[in-house]
Write a structure and sequence with these properties.
Elements: H1 2-12, H2 16-37, E1 52-57, E2 66-67, E3 73-74, H3 76-88, E4 91-96, H4 107-110, E5 114-118, H5 122-125, E6 128-130, E7 135-143, H6 154-159, E8 164-166, H7 174-182, E9 187-189, H8 193-201, E10 207-211, H9 212-221, E11 228-244, H10 250-268
Parallel strand pairs: 1-4, 8-9, 8-10
Antiparallel strand pairs: 2-3, 5-11, 6-11, 7-10, 7-11
Helix pairs in contact: 3-10
């Protein structure tokens, strides 16, 4: 009789463990539905990841990208990228203090998945998606010695024995790649524009190769009034935003380009 009575009790009153399992299942069902609703990312390969684009910020790069006194990422390129991503429901973040030479081919290891101001190359396109161009970059030679003003090309300067400082992690075109090999002993890498300026002022190099807009701000803020610039450009090229293929699908870039066009058109109005 005791066994029979026990069976009747179990049929009419489920064990506590069953009730607990049902409660947990209900909670997880509701949580999963909410998480799916809050996920606006349609183009990122990892569907569970947050819709975040992260860029490196290795040094001050005014007026395009820099960190202000409050630790906020600012700049013309940043404004364009942030505005475009906002229209897509993405958030822009950054990782500071990453050397520029490590910007390429190490995105996954260093935690960022996009780059500002990138020049298109076929080699880079194997690993990265490129946006449509959003501005033109101009790179020139800067110097203090008036004798260098007579040169009509970078190769002319190098052939005369002058030495220069630049960021060798950047891309300056196929013609420069030839000069880099031929005059490797005359071209020295230095990570940031302020450091390259110090080399020039100290007489350790004869010239600096740098972005025209950025380096003009650098030497002006440093109070250098005697700076001269070459009459020629080392390179004048369109730059783009670059996204890791490991984290973004091609459809993301298509949507990005559509929104980028709208942002750029509003800036020109």
């Amino acid at each position: 009789m005791r066994i029979s009575k026990s069976v009747v009790v179990n049929k009419t009153r489920p064990p506590f463990s069953r009730l607990l399992c049902l409660l947990i299942a209900f909670c997880f069902a509701g949580f999963s539905a909410n998480a799916h609703d809050e996920q606006p990312s349609l183009y990122i390969l990892n569907k569970a990841a947050q819709p975040v684009v992260t860029v490196p910020a290795g040094s001050d790069w005014k007026p395009f990208s820099y960190i202000d006194e409050q630790g906020q990422l600012k700049g013309q390129d940043v404004d364009i990228l942030r505005s475009t991503l906002n229209h897509m429901g993405y958030r822009l973040t950054y990782i500071p203090d990453i050397p520029q030479r490590r910007f390429i081919d190490t995105t996954g290891k260093l935690g960022f998945n996009a780059l500002l101001g990138a020049t298109y190359t076929a080699e880079r396109a194997e690993k990265y998606h490129f946006s449509e161009p959003y501005r033109t970059e101009k790179v020139a030679v800067f110097f203090l010695n008036e004798e260098l003003e007579q040169a009509q090309s970078l190769e002319e300067l190098l052939s005369q024995g002058y030495v220069g400082s630049l960021n060798l992690g950047a891309y300056y075109g196929d013609e420069f790649e030839h000069l880099r090999v031929k005059y490797y002993h005359s071209l020295f890498h230095n990570e940031t524009p302020p450091r390259r300026l110090k080399q020039l002022l100290a007489g350790r190099v004869d010239f600096v190769i740098d972005d025209v807009d950025n380096f003009t701000i650098v030497f002006t803020e440093a109070g250098v009034n005697a700076m001269k610039r070459s009459p020629f450009y080392v390179i004048q090229t369109e730059v783009r935003f670059m996204f890791s293929k490991e984290q973004f699908e091609k459809s993301f870039v298509s949507q990005f380009n559509a929104n980028l066009a709208n942002v750029l058109s509003r800036e020109t109005e």
